[in-house]
Design brief:
The complex is a heterodimer.
Chain A: E1 3-8, H1 18-26, E2 32-35, E3 39-43, H2 45-51, H3 55-70, E4 74-79, H4 82-91, E5 98-99, H5 105-109, H6 122-130, H7 136-141, H8 144-151, H9 153-163, E6 180-190, H10 193-214, E7 216-227, E8 232-243, H11 246-260, E9 267-275, E10 278-279, H12 291-310, H13 318-321
Parallel strand pairs in A: 4-5
Antiparallel strand pairs in A: 1-3, 1-4, 2-3, 6-9, 7-8, 7-9, 7-10
Chain B: H1 22-31, E1 36-42, H2 48-58, E2 61-69, H3 75-81, E3 101-106, H4 109-123, E4 142-146, H5 151-157, H6 161-175, E5 179-183, H7 196-209, E6 212-215, H8 227-238, H9 258-271, H10 278-292, H11 321-335, H12 342-358, H13 361-376, E7 381-384, H14 391-395, H15 403-406, E8 425-429, H16 433-444, E9 449-457, H17 460-470, H18 475-484, H19 493-499, H20 504-508, H21 516-522, E10 527-539, H22 544-547, E11 550-552, E12 559-561, H23 565-570, E13 574-581, H24 582-598, H25 612-619, H26 632-641, H27 646-655, H28 658-662, H29 666-673, H30 687-690, H31 700-711, H32 715-724, H33 728-744, H34 749-762, H35 769-788, H36 790-800, H37 807-816, E14 821-822, E15 834-838, H38 841-847, E16 852-856, H39 867-875, H40 882-889, H41 893-901, H42 912-928, H43 952-963, H44 976-982, H45 987-990, E17 998-1009, E18 1020-1025, E19 1030-1035, H46 1040-1049, E20 1052-1063, E21 1066-1076, H47 1077-1097, H48 1119-1122, H49 1127-1130, E22 1133-1134, E23 1140-1141
Helix pairs in contact in B: 1-2, 5-6, 7-9, 8-17, 9-10, 11-12, 11-13, 17-18, 17-21, 24-35, 24-36, 25-35, 27-35, 31-32, 31-34, 33-34, 35-36, 36-37, 41-42
The chains are: A alpha+beta, B alpha/beta.
InterPro entries (chain A): DNA/RNA_pol_sf, DNA_pol_Y-fam_lit_finger_sf, DNA_pol_Y-fam_little_finger, IMS_HHH_1, Rev_trsase/Diguanyl_cyclase, SulA_CellDiv_inhibitor, UmuC
Pfam family, one (chain A): IMS
GO biological process, one term (chain A): DNA repair
Chain lengths: 322, 1169
């Protein structure tokens, strides 16, 4: 039980805080896998020895720090592997970490619905449910061959293993954990494409400035459009080259937005996330013969310096100033 | 002060555009000193009749017109130029409103009106949105206003007078001198519509082109301050939220008075560079244009004149219609064996004289023609309504019942003194109603036949949804608010929040929603769409299309007049009501089933009258599924009345109306019938008409007789008097007249006083006996079927679902009456429900008969099955194996799965889950294209795969999920142990319960109503089904705070109440507390009885012991005194007839009616289905 699964209790529109909270976890271990929009897995195998505390105690420390530093409460589940840690999270309540020990795994799984298993979505659960395999102990009891007939060879085998408590997963540090995000909410259902683009521009301005301040470049941009009915559309675009250049980010964001072709969709928020951060020195940069590109970058540099000196809103694009 | 006429005014009939009713507009025009007003609704003339009548009342001359989207002569190329936009991934595309709009005014009397109708009809032939094609865009009788939204106006707004001149040319060519340019100023900035600059440009351009300008205000609402309502309507039409940063409605488009319009005119002409005096010229031009538009509502629209189909179409080619009618009636006399009856001959000739007097002969022939056609198609048809009182109708075969035998009066239907159009309704099988419509259209042609429109108007739920969406509210929140309201008028929204106990929670958060409530109430009763009226068909001569605009209905493409049923009556269009009656379909199906299986042809119209078994059944009150007598109240009444003859049924049906119930006619009748009280007559002369109902006045016909006997005025005059009774004003006059004439006839003052009391109290809302006879015929027929062919009867009911109860309740009833329910089986079930001989030896021995007829469930009840799929499965029967079934019936995967779940495939292998697995693999194999390996073993049987079979509870759940019925057993059986723990009394045992005993009852909710009752209070009537029978519950308003929400919003109920007995067969429970049984059962399963106890211990708001008075015939007069605190209870609606009604009674309550099966069962992800 060395893996923690943490879910921060963020209000829905505050995904932007997540990277900061991940930073908090990084103080304990470098092995962190972010689960956007509001969670993360942390492998504390090394940390337990380093801090001299066990995972449950460390969980309390994490919670206290999150509350103290960010004012954000969190739920924490602990288990021997990522899967069990995630499942433990379902049973956790604020202030009470749910921990599953190695020898109590079978007991913990018995009676749980199949959907409690990470990786079993509604489709698989429906399939299993149609055949009466609705709890994990029933799935564990079913012959492997039947499961494979139902779900296919690989999925069937994996499900069979996991239902029996075999957790082969690892915590894999992912790109999202090294990401920056910003969210632009609207006060009412917003349909106006001009205002959408303005929000995007403001988002890329902010992301670009933050990236450049950290001396980082990003490889991928993700656009999330949230609608009034609480659904969302997510689009990800890989940039032609890693960059922190606002113009390039804006172009990518606009491209994704235009491709959606929204007309009457009632947009409540636009979120933009820069992913795959890397240090700026390692980024390659395609030179062009176009002097404009060069000039734009120079201006950006100057603007950044002005901002550093006179505050973040000292220099902003004209469309945002209006 | 010069007057002013608004030439461009839209009402609420411009769907989601106009914000005021036509009546309001007419009133305001009169108040503000205007002598004339035009109504120019968008794409419709539907408001015309109401507008014309309102104008007549307000003293304003109406002008008629329409605002139509028009296609330009060269629009094609413009369309080609526009680029195509990308399809949005979410939310859909914008509503395109870019088509130019032009206002047309009917100028030239009937010709103008006909042109207007033609243009509107032509506009509606466009594929999606109404659009007037250019080739149809010409008319001699119309004046055309080119306003800011026309192509010319748009060119001017764009600053292109040259282009405007070019666009003007084709208009000038088509309309010449009847063309006007319309200037509108709404105080907007810029050069767009409503701006001063555009208005000035229009006036200048008109002078330059030598076309007369007119001034209008493009009115959308009657009063200032209604701009926000217009914004909501705009948002609802365009399906977008209101954006306060964009251009909103200017708030100026109201019906301004002449002074304000003079001011507007002055500003416009000054801006156009003329002298201020030119403003008078502009107003003069407007006035002159209005003066030219002369369409008279009576002469030109045809208000008050009648048009029947031409006689040659209804079988009167060479003779006059009257002669043909007379000879057909005579033929009927002979055919029906009345030839030797002198009284029949006399009555027939009397009636023919009346018909000739009005010239309605071709009307009778038309109806007879339709009825003959329908009957030839093999569709059951019956007449209802007062038309059944006419012997001629009977002779022509329109009405079944013999009016002489049943004492029905022609005068109630038609007399020399009745100048309204007679009204014959015919009932046909609902399933084949559209076939009937097609037959009528084929017979008379589309130029004479149209269906009637039915505007759908805003009520509270839709208003909340549309306003909420316009105000950018959270969709989940909107949905919650909308669903918590009962189906009330939008204007009562805030009052309901204050007063209804089940809305208390919502009322608490009322302030959060700001302007929502105000706007919701402003939308009240505005049309929001139009549908085809479910029964009206217009029949006319070939001039129909010149008198009514016609549009195609959305589904079937029938021609539909834009006028609603009241309008068409005012317009003198002949309307025939063709009602689809599900019971007729159900009975037809039952008869067909009997013929299919037993080879026995039942003629329902000739079943023996007075069948003892049938009346035994009716008296037992087990009348579920029988026409008209299945509701809880009717079952109660039937139990007390104990009908033994057809006449008793007629009386029973007449008594169960809001009027008689409210007037307390039921109790004296029952008392007298069972000899507990003597029948009393005010005077021996009146004994004859009143004898049949023991001195209680039940029928309109009796009032007619009484008035006729007492005053000697003749029955036709008596009918006129009877009609006058419902109006308090004329009632006073009639009283004096009645007293005078009765005194002349020698009746003493006391008799006159007592008789008048009866006439006054009951006359206005008794029931027409002709109607009741029409109803009682199918009532008797359905009860006869239930008594003699129960299986076939249930098969018909389940197939056509005619009644108020959910299907599962009918099934429970069938089970109780010993009809075996045979499960769904792909080798045996048909598309519709069928009957089958159960050759089970046990039952054969037990019942000592060759076998019992069982009910085989139908494929069409499987959730989501299409007609084609069901037919394919039925056609391919029998199937040898699962593979055979899969390959030949080709069911879709989900349907096959559902069939397996409910055991329809049990014949192919034992385990339903194994079958599922095989189906999945067959499906995959089929998708793979190769067919692949057959997962079958052991010949025709399917091999087992080792999955666990469905448990009993899962099977039941599957049945409810797939069929919405608990077919194997009653779902309440599963709760039986828990109910026994609670000490719940079953419906069967309840029959032995004493009056006044406090009991617990439980069951699945079958029906909920809040009908109007005499005491003027709101009573919730609920019927529960617990497997052993039905429990009828009543909740009086002192228990509403505690119970109303639970009763409306739960499917399974546990109720504490007091037993009420009013006769051997009359029993109900007055509820005092109610709990959601599903919730309790869950608590029992999870936490044991302790949890249940904790839930029950939770305090229920006090004041809840049931009161033993009130319902129906109880006394409720002291209710308000006892309960003075509640403001809402004091407010009651006084009907014109004098009895009070609770303001919220007679509404469809909140919640979603009775449970529909799928909702009765908890759904865990693991359970099948």
């Amino acid at each position: 039980m060395t893996i923690l699964c943490v879910r921060f209790q963020l209000p829905p529109m505050y995904e932007a805080v997540l990277p900061g909270l991940l930073g908090l976890l990084e103080e304990f271990t470098p092995v962190i896998e972010a689960l956007p929009p509001d969670g993360a897995l942390a492998d504390l195998r090394g940390a337990e020895r380093y801090f001299g505390r066990d995972a449950v105690e460390l969980a309390s420390v994490i919670r206290v720090r999150a509350l103290a530093r960010y004012g954000v409460d969190c739920l924490i589940g602990a288990g021997p592997g990522p899967m069990l840690a995630r499942m433990a999270l379902y049973d956790a309540r604020p202030g009470m970490t749910c921990a599953v020990t190695e020898d109590a795994v079978a007991e913990f799984l018995a009676g749980k619905p199949v959907t409690a298993l990470p990786g079993v979505g509604t489709a698989t659960a429906r399939t299993l449910g149609e055949y009466g395999l609705d709890t994990l102990d029933r799935v564990a009891a079913a012959p492997l061959s039947t499961l494979q007939r139902l779900l296919g060879a690989k999925t069937g085998r994996e499900l069979h293993e996991r239902a029996n408590g075999v957790d082969r997963g690892r915590v894999v540090p992912n790109a999202v954990s090294r990401s920056l995000a910003t969210e632009q909410p609207f006060e009412r259902d917003e349909l106006d494409p001009d205002r959408h683009r303005r929000a995007l521009l403001s988002a890329t301005e902010e992301l670009g400035a933050r990236l450049r301040a950290l001396d980082k470049v990003c490889r991928t941009l993700t656009l999330t459009v949230r609608y009034a009915d609480r659904s969302a559309t997510v689009r990800t675009r890989r940039l032609p080259e890693p960059t922190a250049h606002t113009t390039a980010l804006t172009r990518a964001a606009y491209g994704m937005y235009e491709a959606l072709g929204l007309q009457r969709a009632r947009v409540r928020a636009l979120a933009l996330r820069a992913e795959g951060l890397d240090s700026a020195e390692q980024a390659s940069y395609q030179l062009t013969f176009d002097p404009v590109d060069e000039k734009v970058r120079r201006i950006e540099e100057v603007a950044d310096r002005a901002r550093a000196r006179f505050g973040p809103r000292a220099v902003i694009p004209g469309t945002l100033a209006a | 002060m010069p007057g002013f006429t608004h030439l461009h005014t839209v009402s609420g009939f411009s769907v989601r555009y106009g914000a005021s009713h036509p009546e309001r507009l007419a009133e305001r025009a009169a108040e503000r000193g205007m002598d004339a007003l035009a109504l120019t609704d968008r794409d419709t003339l539907a408001g015309t009749v109401r507008f014309a009548k309102a104008c007549a009342a307000a003293g304003v001359r109406p002008l008629f017109g329409a605002e139509l989207a028009v296609d330009g002569p060269r629009r094609q190329e413009e369309v080609a130029r526009g680029e195509r936009r990308r399809t949005p991934v979410r939310g859909g595309a914008f509503i395109d409103e870019s088509t130019p709009r032009v206002t047309f005014l009917a100028r030239d009397g009937a010709r103008g009106w006909a042109d207007l109708c033609r243009l509107v009809t032509a506009a509606h032939t466009a594929p999606d949105t109404p659009l007037l094609p250019w080739p149809d865009n010409h008319a001699d009788g119309l004046t055309v206003l080119l306003g800011p939204d026309s192509d010319v106006g748009r060119a001017l707004a764009a600053g292109r007078p040259d282009r405007a001149a070019k666009l003007l040319a084709p208009w000038r060519e088509a309309y010449g001198d009847a063309l006007r340019l319309e200037a509108v100023w709404h105080g907007r900035e810029g050069t767009g519509p409503g701006s001063l600059r555009l208005a000035a440009r229009t006036v200048g351009f008109a002078a330059e082109q030598r076309i007369r300008p007119v001034l209008s205000n493009a009115v959308r609402y009657a009063d200032p301050g209604q701009g926000p309502v217009a914004d909501v309507l705009d948002a609802a039409r365009r399906l977008v939220p209101i954006d306060p940063t964009k251009e909103l409605d200017s708030g100026e488009a109201w019906l301004k008075d002449p002074a304000a319009m003079l001011h507007t005119a002055e500003r416009i002409v000054e801006a156009a560079g003329f002298r201020r005096e030119a403003a008078h010229r502009l107003l003069e031009q407007t006035g002159a244009t209005a003066a030219e538009c002369l369409v008279d509502p009576e002469d030109d629209l045809g208000l008050g004149t009648v048009h029947f189909p031409e006689p040659h179409l209804v079988g009167a080619a060479r003779r006059t219609a009257q002669r043909t009618l007379a000879s057909r009636a005579a033929v009927g006399m002979v055919l029906r064996g009345y030839a030797g009856r002198r009284d029949y001959w006399e009555r027939m000739h009397d009636e023919l004289d009346v018909i000739a007097y009005h010239g309605f002969a071709s009307y009778f022939l038309t109806v007879a023609q339709v009825v003959d056609d329908v009957r030839k198609m093999g569709i059951r048809v019956a007449a209802r309504g007062s038309g059944a009182g006419s012997l001629v109708n009977h002779l022509l075969g329109i009405a079944h019942a013999d009016p002489v035998e049943h004492g029905l009066l022609m005068e109630r239907f038609l007399s020399r003194r009745r100048f309204v159009l007679p009204d014959i309704d015919i009932d046909v099988e609902s399933a084949r109603r559209l076939e009937v419509y097609r037959a009528i259209i084929d017979r008379f042609g589309t130029e004479r036949v149209a269906t009637v429109a039915m505007p759908e108007t805003y009520r509270v739920r839709h208003a909340v949804r549309d306003v909420g969406a316009a105000l950018s509210m959270d969709p989940a929140e909107i949905d919650r608010i909308a669903k918590s309201f009962p189906h009330i008028r939008a204007r009562d929204a805030r009052a309901a929040l204050e007063e209804l106990p089940e809305l208390k929670a919502l009322a608490g958060e009322k302030q959060r929603y700001g302007r929502l409530w105000e706007l919701v109430e402003a939308l009240d009763a505005l049309p929001r769409g139009v549908a085809m009226h479910p029964c009206g068909v217009l029949l006319s001569d070939a001039s129909l299309l010149a008198r009514t605009p016609v549009m195609p209905t959305s589904g079937e493409g029938f021609p539909m007049s834009q006028f609603d049923k009241d309008d068409v009556e005012d317009l003198g269009l002949l309307k025939l009501d063709v009602l689809g009656v599900r019971m007729q379909s159900a009975m037809a199906h039952a008869v067909a089933e009997v013929e299919r299986t037993k080879g026995e042809r039942i003629d329902l119209d000739a079943v023996p009258p007075g069948d003892p078994a049938t009346y035994r059944l009716i008296r037992s009150t087990e009348t579920l599924g029988c026409f008209q007598i299945e509701s809880p109240g009717q079952r109660d009444l039937v139990g007390r009345l104990q009908p033994a003859t057809f006449h008793d049924l007629v009386v029973d049906i007449s008594l169960f109306r809001p009027g008689p119930v409210a007037a307390d006619m039921v109790r004296p009748f029952i008392e007298a019938r069972h000899g507990r009280a003597p029948a009393r007559y005010p005077h021996p002369d009146l004994e004859e008409p009143l004898k049949e109902t023991y001195g209680v006045v039940v029928f309109h016909e009796q009032i007619i007789h009484i008035v006729h006997i007492m005053t000697g005025c003749g029955r036709d005059e008596a009918d006129r008097v009877r009609r006058g009774l419902s109006d308090p004003e004329s009632q006073g006059r009639i009283k004096v007249w009645f007293a005078q004439h009765a005194a002349v006839r020698g009746y003493d003052a006391e008799t006159i006083r007592r008789t008048w009391e009866i006439v006054e109290a009951f006359g206005s809302y008794g029931f027409c006996k002709a109607h009741a006879v029409g109803f009682a015929v199918p009532t008797y027929q359905s009860a006869w079927l239930k008594a003699h062919h129960p299986a076939a009867f249930y098969a018909g009911l389940l197939t056509h679902d005619p009644g108020m109860y959910p299907k599962r309740l009918l099934l429970a009833d069938a089970r109780r009456r010993g009809v075996p329910i045979l499960p769904l089986d792909v080798n045996r079930s048909g598309v519709a429900h069928r009957i089958e001989l159960v050759s089970d030896s046990r039952s054969a021995v037990r019942s000592n008969s060759p076998g019992v007829w069982g009910l085989r469930l139908a494929l069409s009840d499987v959730h989501g099955i299409s007609e084609a799929e069901a037919a394919r499965i039925a056609d391919g029967q029998p199937y040898a194996s699962l593979l055979d079934f899969w390959e030949r019936a080709r069911p879709s995967r989900p349907i096959a799965g559902r069939l397996a779940q409910v055991g329809a495939l049990d014949a192919f292998g034992a385990n339903r889950r194994d079958l599922q697995l095989h189906l999945t693999e067959l499906h995959r194999g089929a998708r793979g294209g190769g067919g692949g390996q057959l997962p079958l073993a052991g010949g025709r049987k399917t091999a087992a795969a080792g999955l666990p079979d469905l448990s009993d509870a899962e099977k039941l759940s599957a049945e409810l999920g797939v069929l919405s019925m608990d077919t194997s057993r009653n779902l309440m059986d599963d709760h039986r142990a828990f109910l026994d723990e609670l000490g719940v009394v079953s419906a069967r045992r309840l029959r032995e319960a004493r009056h006044g005993e406090t009991v617990l009852v439980a069951g699945a909710k079958a029906a909920t109503q809040t009908p109007p009752i005499r005491s003027g209070k709101r009573v919730i009537f609920t019927t529960l089904d617990d497997g052993t029978g039905l429990v009828d519950l009543a909740f009086f308003d002192d228990s509403h705070d505690a119970c109303a929400h639970t009763v409306f919003h739960s499917w399974l109920l546990l109720v504490r109440g007091v037993v009420q007995r009013r006769g051997p067969r009359s029993l109900s429970v007055v509820g005092s507390a109610a709990w959601n049984l599903a919730e309790l059962a869950e608590l029992r399963a999870e936490g044991g009885l302790e949890e249940v106890a904790a839930r029950l211990a939770r305090p229920v708001p006090e004041g809840a012991e049931g009161t033993p008075d009130g319902e129906g015939d109880g006394d409720g007069g002291d209710g308000d005194a006892r309960d003075p605190a509640r403001a809402g209870r004091d407010r009651s609606i006084r009907m014109s007839t004098g009895y009070e009604m609770h303001p919220w009674a007679d509404l469809r309550p909140a919640g979603e009616g009775p449970a529909s099966g799928r909702k009765l069962w908890h759904q865990s992800p693991g359970s099948a289905g």
